[in-house]
Input
Amino acid sequence: MNTATGTKRLPLAQWRSRLLVPLHPRAIRLSVASVCSGLAVGFVGAAFRYALIAANRLRDLLIYTAHGWPRFGWILPLVVAALGAGLARLLVIRFAPFAAGSGIQHVEAVFSGEAKPAGFAIVPVKFFGGILALGTGLALGREGPTVQMGAALGLVSSKFLALDDEDCKVVQAAGAGSGLAVAFNAPIGGAIFVFEELTGSFSPWLLVATLAGTSVSIWIMRLLLGSTIEFTVTQALNHLWHVAPFFLLGSLLGLAGAAYNKLTMAALHLSDRYSRIPSVYRATAIGAVIGLIAWFEPRLVGDGGRLTQSVLAQGHTIETLLVIFCIRFLIGPFSYAAGTPGGIFTPIILLGASFGALFACVLNHFAPSLEFSAIACAVVGMGALFTASVRAPLTGIVLVVEMTGRVDLTVALIAASLGAMIVVLLLNNEPIYQTLKRRMLQQQIQPASPDTGQTGWLSDTSRRKSKVQ
Output
């Protein structure tokens, strides 16, 4: 009791129960929880994006400064990238093992009941670990951290409002969709991602929560960072009645997507073979290699967003596009094997754009009369490779349209995504997140296994203790 006023101080639980009295209808409860999580995701996601922009500029300045010492300057980006990757990995194994890699596979496993939700620690680890890893040059995407942070913030809001376990899962999924929407400034794509990829289901409750969360998070993000689309693309119309070349492009990217998935898993398995070396050291070594690449060509490292924009501006030769595609095809899985926070969507988008532009340039070289648009093929390639790797064609098509504003290429995107889907189905290639989720769950049932460097369930300290015991 407050002796000064004679009133009783109610505990937090009682205040919360009083606030929830008018929230009995499920739709209202889910909406309120999703709006709260959307507010948090909007602020956190916007801060994360702004911090990455600042980190990328700082990395460029550091490399530019280092070139002032031609003989020894290469050491500076190498050391910085090595420290960034090592510290990011250290944050993961010490505070939040679930934060390794993309994290989307963990969110999917939580919704299906195959894994337990991650605690709030996932948010600062993903935030600062992502800045360290991506900001110093690892070829990873920002969408993985924002999706997993969104799910964690959705859990916090649903627990505060005392929702039951089923509703908690719904709000977490909505928070994850909000995270993707903020990462790419694509609210519709973020919502479709929840239904098509994250949950594989559709219900009125999930729809209500997802729309509430994505709309609020995008509103906050645009209020803070502006409402411009991700990529500036000229609206030069292509010969859209030529559907066959787009289908062929999608089919080729189906092969590329299947190979990229295989290479990603091969990089993780290769890292497992060196499990006697602490994962922090392995991540540091990977960062050092990326830093050395940055010394020679800074545009080839990082998430690849700026390089994607340059490809969409149609300013590269066939040789340059081939170099971009080949190097990024290799360093993407190599970076993912470091086990730091970071996704794969943004690197895939760059690969798809560079391959699509290369495809158009080759066609025009052998058949100049076609006058095929490299810009159109680059945009279509982004969606096709996303479809091939993730196997979520609707999400990929909508994301690309929202990020580029090229609504006129919808038919071409559909044709290319169809070709990619047919190829990966014929190859029986598993979607990347399904493979990553199975790997994660296998490690979960083997808690005594060494730290794998990607989603290790034991920190290096815990592993040493288990050996002593």
Remarks:
- The CA atoms of residues 113 and 216 lie 27 Å apart.
- Residues 1-7, 452-469 have pLDDT under 50 and may be disordered.
